[in-house]
Model the fold of this input.
Amino acid sequence: MHLPPKALRWLADRIGPLGGDTPIAPDSLLAVPDSRLPDDARRALEAVVGVERVLTGRGDRLGRAGGLSYLDLLRRRNYGEIDVPDAVVLPADPEQVQLLLDACAAHDVGVVPFGGGTSVVGGVNALRGTKESVVALDLLRLDALVSVDPVSRLAVLQAGVRGPEAERLLAAHGLTLGHVPQSFERATIGGFAATRSAGQASSGYGRFDDMVAGVRMATPAGEWRLGVAPASAAGPDLRQLAIGSEGALGVITEVTLRVRPQPIEQRFEGFVLDGWERGAGAVRELAQSGLLADVTRLSDVDESEVSLSLNAGWKTAALRRYLSARGIGQPCLLVLGWHGATERRIALRRKETVRVLKAHGAVAVRPIGESWRKGRFHGPRQRDALLGLGVCVETLETAAHWSGIHRLRDAVRAALTTSLAANGHSPVVMCHISHAYETGASLYFTVLAARDDADPIGQWQRAKDAACEAISGVGTERGPFGTISHHHAVGVDHAPYLAAEVGELGVGVLAAVKRRVDPGGILNPGKLVKDGE
Amino acid sequence: MHLPPKALRWLADRIGPLGGDTPIAPDSLLAVPDSRLPDDARRALEAVVGVERVLTGRGDRLGRAGGLSYLDLLRRRNYGEIDVPDAVVLPADPEQVQLLLDACAAHDVGVVPFGGGTSVVGGVNALRGTKESVVALDLLRLDALVSVDPVSRLAVLQAGVRGPEAERLLAAHGLTLGHVPQSFERATIGGFAATRSAGQASSGYGRFDDMVAGVRMATPAGEWRLGVAPASAAGPDLRQLAIGSEGALGVITEVTLRVRPQPIEQRFEGFVLDGWERGAGAVRELAQSGLLADVTRLSDVDESEVSLSLNAGWKTAALRRYLSARGIGQPCLLVLGWHGATERRIALRRKETVRVLKAHGAVAVRPIGESWRKGRFHGPRQRDALLGLGVCVETLETAAHWSGIHRLRDAVRAALTTSLAANGHSPVVMCHISHAYETGASLYFTVLAARDDADPIGQWQRAKDAACEAISGVGTERGPFGTISHHHAVGVDHAPYLAAEVGELGVGVLAAVKRRVDPGGILNPGKLVKDGE
Done:
């Protein structure tokens, strides 16, 4: 992805001189230790999937070594060490997954379930924990639509199906899942479930956890199937232990998902509101009135400023004058997207929504919506490009109840700005609401700073720690201002902050569940719950 | 409650000669064993709440002995033994609840958390399990609205607040919870959460588990607080272990609830559809189109027949002719109720709904809705009256995905009918859908049979077992047709069927969680998970 010179000049003005160019290192230059998988373990795995489905080549192992966090990306540029699995195993179906877990348990081999490899929290890093060896269990061959129940609007998809393929398979039945996170192009059904993913259209289609009607999960203690009804009072909802289990409590092999008819019509629009508080107030009213569009995304002043400054397609100066004449001095962009069976249905919903927005002083700027839609999956590639040019670029997200979101935003912005200020420059810290609920909203931050080439990893780790402390209140007397993750999971990066949110008792309960389903502690070492907790 | 002679004649015609009159026995005639609470335990409890808040009188203990299942009601008529707690303890606040659990753990005393006492699954029966003594922990003094956050639309209510009081407290802030199960008048906030309750307006306001944003729970392993954001990906949603924990994993002391503005307007209407399949198809389309009224309740032909036969207020014969002339030979009554801020908003929603219903051949009979609304909390009293007249009368409920609801209904009806057929008469088995979802619906059965006075308890236990086996597939090769409970919890009665739904591994996980939070196994012995599982 090409970044225009104008954008780079703007950026250097804002954040100071960028770090050096840093291309992705070729695999051959990365340090990859030899496989430590013992021969007997290897033979046991081969007995399940066949010799050709247990891969120990350098490239195969590097291909399943970690995810897509900024630190992961730095490691691919030869900053820091990559945790590389000792082998990659490719099961064909849920039965083979179960047999592989049995074999790994018997040989005390760690197992990292691997889907799209898009974790931004270290969720698929090949940590060993207490194990001598660890394998990546790549679910790519579990790529089938198992069944469709059009009457109940349910579909069973295997865990390895990626976002676009899920939509293609369902489209043949006139159905859609409607789950489109930014990782859509690579991430998998199993990964969405294991991380409690949310997508760009979650305001309309619900979070992924809302879509999961049932799960099939392999565990070292045997296979576990959950979900027989649309709702149940048969004790605690144990599906909610599988959803968000992050590969640490089992390997999700199939997911039964609520699906919907493919929308015939789509409509994206943009509005501009005057200032963050006003914008958030409008989104809150929409959420609390049941009037949210399927896609609802409000940028704060800083993010809007970046959009307006960098988007070459808009006549920015003219737009600013237009907005200013309508009383908007602090533009906050709001993208709305509706899906619907007919234009009439969309128009009905839109009319009520626009009525609320007008009352909050919103000005319609239609192209903002379409422009956002076209670039909706570009984020990861833009980040790659910026990173290659010497920018420290990362995102993080949280959520809070409405009465606390301004406090939360202020605290995270202050933490990031203070931590990343250097040489008289401050970082760009942008924020948007991408998911709104009756009781609160998510906050998604994007940070751009000049990379400190002397210690790029430490630079970001300190900033991330500062942000996490601001969110969770770790190291303070107060409780958390928000959740440590609204839709990216715990992984390695957020594990130190989990107890602040769910209590030491909560962490202890997760550990107790893990001991029951994974007595040998082979599943995804170091993620979600650590050994010995 | 008075039952008209016409209704009784109709009933005797249908189900055969009723059993004998059976009034509720005065407390003095019921067998109440002496309290077995050891003196040192008693002193420890008194040290927390004061001498006058530890009750060991016969009437006080009987008042917290069991719930409102048919078997509970029979026991109050001196059929079978009542499990009576050894004492009743009345804490004033969450801190005292925690101290009481500590004291009970120290003295190895079982604890049955007690709210409204409306369990229909044995959930508050004072079983001892392995304990020498057991106390009822009555939460009636935890009756406060702790705080209101109008911006986030959240309210914190203590666990002992009953339905009407919750609404009264919230109404002072212009808010409502909108949770109105049939137990509304007696049941408590803590009980709703502990049992994953659903109410008559759950189609609009959501199930109680949808409303719970946070919980505060006392456990023998310490206090546990959960819920900091509207949604989270910080691992599994542990709130979902507290919701539905049935007093076996902790004592819920406070619940943070999503609230809504009080509706200004309400509108109830009735429609009639031709036959069950057609009616269910219409409700399914409404649910899958986002057009459900806040209250949506479809009766099958049998239940509609009873309504039409017994409701003295309607000109039944004329109504039948009217319906017949409109092509409805098998009337199924559909009650719809809308709540809204304005008549206009209700009218907008109603218009779309009626359009769908007309396409399914529905005929509007408006008084059906209002008539249902007036009698909406009468069920328990009607049941009491029938029971006193010698009728075996009970309800049970389940849920399934849409493609399976007819199979599920047929199976449960067949099981109940076969089990309760006697002397050439069949029972009346009625069914309605009270909760509809995109992917499925609940089925709520009401059974009327002539009571077998020789063995009334065995008569119903066999029928209930037959129904549970039909639902869960226990004793067969097939899996469950539906959930063992959609909104009444597990308690004692459904415990044998839980493994069929969540797996032996699921039961094992619950037991592992219980051991972590309640190592001494003092909490609600015999409910949800049994000792030693």
Observations:
- DSSP finds 19 helices and 18 strands in chain A.
- Chain A has a mean pLDDT of 94.
- Residues 208 and 266 of chain A are 21 Å apart (CA to CA).
